[in-house]
Amino acid sequence: MATLLKLNNGLKLPQVGLGVWKIPNELTAETVYNAIKQGYRLFDGAEDYGNEKEVGQGVRRAIDEGLVKREDLFIVSKLWNNYHHPDNVGKALDRTLSDLGLDYLDLFYIHFPIAFKFVPLEEKYPPAFYCGDGNNFHYEDVPLLDTYRALERLVDAGRIKSLGVSNFNGALLQDLLRGARIKPVALQIEHHPYLVQQKLIEYAQSEDIVVVAYSSFGPQSFLELKVNKALTAVSLFEHDVIKKIAQAHNRSAGEVLLRWATQRGLAIIPKSSKPERLSSNLHINSFDLTKEDLETISSLDLGLRFNDPWDWDKIPIFA
Q1: Residue 85 in marked binding region
Q2: 194 labelled catalytic
Q3: Domains of the chain with bracketed CATH
Q4: How many Cα neighbours within 13 Å face the side chain of 188?
């Protein structure tokens, strides 16, 4: 079982979970089921990933076979951009819970601080970048606090246990905290040695908000998406610094990258469908890097962001 991180609402978050982004639908249910058998309890999904039905199937199979109880699991989803208006937040949650076959979520993030035009669920779900006019971007003037307060009401109703935000910068997080009634428990960010975001991490941790890292392997996560910056970046698996540290500890480059995050107090959600990789990821805290290792890896920071909405439609979250 993974190390548990205490959240600011008293709940406990497994430090290592399985991220289901980009797991093919036909493999998702079996992958989730096998991960539960391996000892995983945190599953990080999202409406936009389009595989929540299959995640639910894997969870249901494990529960039906007596491997776990629902309360043993920490199930996460994220509110997609088209559902930010308070009238639509509950509709989106209804669909997520229906697809997962669950009565509540343990954590629900705002996926991006971006409000797209609402698309009826029966028209296209998940809508991705569709806003009723092909992949042309259309927006709604919905302040983030309005969306967040609608989510707070769903916490009051018992349908969400914890709230979080994803892809927020420091200023947006600080502004949200000024008006939030229920403090977010987690901030999920792109985080790898090419994009350390140390000041943002320090600020979130000072506010007792757990930082969850996604895309821990940097460009590797974006190769299949044909992101130009990822295609031209040096693979962290092949980086001389990472390889040297990995050799010194008799570990793989991937293990070093994950341990660099967890040893600094972050949670991680790497994706894998291979049993041996699932196991090594889950037990990533079985070795320690030196203080010099940690600092050397952090010094590779280039401010290189692969998941940037500026590249979608000049959306200035990180400008």
Answers
A1: no
A2: no
A3: 4-312 (3.20.20.100)
A4: 28
